[in-house]
């Protein structure tokens, strides 16, 4: 199967900077969790003894991550 998309080898420096800027501007799970905490008046803690704990394993489940948008 042929690939018709853009490859990094074909980009110049400005193209790479533009692609990186687009990636950095996207909402990530950490930002989503921070927004949820702020909206609900919750405290963010590094302690694993908490009411809600979000791990990398948790983030691999798209259904539970999508549930954050509903809460």
Can you walk through the features of this model?
The chain contains 4 helices and no strands. The relative contact order is 0.10. It has helices at residues 13-25, 29-40, 56-59, 62-70. It is elongated. It is mostly helical and 71 residues long. It starts with 12 loop residues before the first helix and ends with a helix. Helix content is 54%, strand content 0%.
Put the structure in a nutshell:
Helix content is 54%, strand content 0%. It is an all-alpha fold.
Briefly note the structural class of the backbone: mainly alpha
Shape designation? elongated
**Residue share in β-strands:** under 5%
- What is the mean predicted local confidence, pLDDT? 82
Series of secondary-structure elements, N-terminal to C-terminal: HHHH
Helical content (DSSP H or I, runs of 4+):
40-55%
Q: Count of DSSP E strands?
A: 0
Report the biggest beta sheet as strand number plus sense, adding barrel if it closes: none
How far the N terminus sits from the C terminus, by CA atoms, comes to 41 Å
If you compute it from the alpha carbons, what radius of gyration comes out, rounded to the nearest whole angstrom? 18 Å
The helix tally amounts to: 4
Low-confidence runs of at least 5 consecutive residues: none
Helices and strands, with pairings:
Layout lengths: L12 H13 L3 H12 L15 H4 L2 H9 L1
Keywords for this structure?
mainly alpha, 71 residues
């Amino acid at each position: 199967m042929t690939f018709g998309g853009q490859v990094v080898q074909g980009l110049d420096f400005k193209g790479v900077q533009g692609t990186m800027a687009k990636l950095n501007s996207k909402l990530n799970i950490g930002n989503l969790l921070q927004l949820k905490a702020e909206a609900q008046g919750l405290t963010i803690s590094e302690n694993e003894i908490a009411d809600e704990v979000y791990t990398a394993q948790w983030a691999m489940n798209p259904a539970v991550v999508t549930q954050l948008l509903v809460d």
